[in-house]
Design a protein that fits this description.
With 128 residues, this protein is of the alpha+beta class. It has helices at 5-11, 36-55, 82-89, 93-96, 116-123; strands at residues 18-28, 59-64, 71-77, 100-110. The radius of gyration is 16 Å and the shape is globular.
Length: 128
């Protein structure tokens, strides 16, 4: 591979090809939806928020975990601080109502993660 300084700069990579993000672990919260319609509405709002954040370049990666009693999914936010990540999470209706509780962790990973959403759009046959 040949080093691409233009791409590295565009993605915000340091000399190791890495950058700082904030990882958000989504856990089972205390709120229980009162009906299937309410649950569907919360998840629709959750997915709409994910898509909006990804399109804005704020969400590098997201996805659910396999069935378990505690951990539901994760976000990798393209932000430098936990406070910035908290502001983004406040817009998610499933987090706002505590369907999902959250833990925030600084994460240092490949700046190439920022290309996942664009690549995903080229392989996604059906959208949420």
């Amino acid at each position: 591979p040949v080093y691409d300084s233009v791409l590295a700069k565009k993605l915000g990579a340091d000399e190791y090809g890495m950058k700082s993000y904030v990882m958000v672990l989504l856990k089972t919260g205390t709120y229980k939806p009162k009906s299937k319609n309410e649950s569907d509405s919360l998840f629709r709002g959750h997915m709409d928020n994910i898509i909006s954040l990804a399109n804005a370049g704020k969400l590098a990666l997201a996805g659910p975990f396999g069935k378990n009693d505690l951990y539901r999914g994760l976000f990798i936010f393209n932000v430098k601080t936990i406070d910035e990540a908290k502001l983004l999470c406040e817009k998610d209706p499933a987090i706002k109502i505590n369907l999902f509780a959250v833990d925030y962790l600084p994460w240092y990973g490949s700046a190439a993660v920022m290309q996942v959403n664009d690549i995903h759009k080229t392989i996604e046959k059906k959208s949420h």
